[in-house]
Specification:
The chain has 7 helices and 5 strands, in the order ααααααββββαβ. With about 230 residues, it is mostly helical. The relative contact order is 0.13.
């Protein structure tokens, strides 16, 4: 997945009020791509080199773009869930674009809204009925009012609909150090994609690789290694 392809997906998602169709493993592939780029950055002896800087900026761009795709799609999913919880009918095509983790999110939001409505508006003390788990391959319209749905729940638990797309944080392989700035420095981007700036006397947390190079250059003092 190239950054240009991801930006195309973002533009398409922005331009329509409906969910666009994306690959079910899009977020997984992006997560793996980010980890791969971060490892390339980590392999550079000098994280402040031009090559490392280009890779860091690419990581930052990919992360920003995929987070925006997620935000826009989530806004649309919340809107669909609200309509469903209020009793509206949703045609199969409206939910077919949901990837498995998004379908799980949709069902959880619908259930949360209905439970809250029961507790806050209808003033019932009995537990709210279970909400039916929706499946994008069902033939009927998506109306979910039946309380006894054990078979559907069992089928959902055995399927891929409850497997998250991203299992590992992209930054999991990076440690941080607490350092004392011995002198000021112009803003720079760390290997984690974040921008740092400091003045003499500041105490801050930096990625260990960046901290190591700055210690060697007598710019910071490592107070607490990661």
């Amino acid at each position: 997945m190239h950054l240009d392809d991801l930006r195309t997906i973002l533009l398409e998602e922005r331009d329509t009020g409906e969910l666009t169709t994306i690959s079910h493993d899009l977020f997984t592939k992006i997560s793996e791509h980010i980890r791969s780029l971060q490892q390339e950055v980590y392999s550079h002896e000098d994280p402040f080199s031009d090559e490392a800087r280009v890779l860091i900026e690419k990581v930052s761009s990919v992360r920003t773009t995929v987070e925006e795709v997620f935000r826009i799609r989530t806004d649309k999913i919340v809107g669909l869930a609200l309509s469903q919880a209020e009793g509206s009918y949703l045609e199969r095509e409206e939910l077919r674009a949901l990837i498995p983790a998004e379908l799980e999110m949709f069902n959880q939001i619908v259930e949360a809204i209905r439970q809250s409505k029961t507790q806050l508006i209808e003033w019932k003390t009995t537990p709210a009925p279970q909400v039916r788990i929706l499946h994008a391959d069902e033939d009927e319209c998506f109306q979910t009012s039946e309380p006894d749905l054990t078979d559907d729940m069992d089928r959902a638990e055995d399927s891929d609909y409850f497997k998250p797309d991203i299992k590992t944080s992209p930054d999991a392989s990076f440690t941080n150090d607490i350092v004392l700035a011995l002198s000021g420095m112009e803003p720079f981007m760390g290997i984690d994609g974040r921008t740092y700036e400091m003045e003499a006397g500041d105490i801050l947390t930096l990625p260990s690789r960046n901290a190591q190079v700055l210690v060697e250059r007598d710019i910071v003092l490592n107070i607490l290694p990661g």
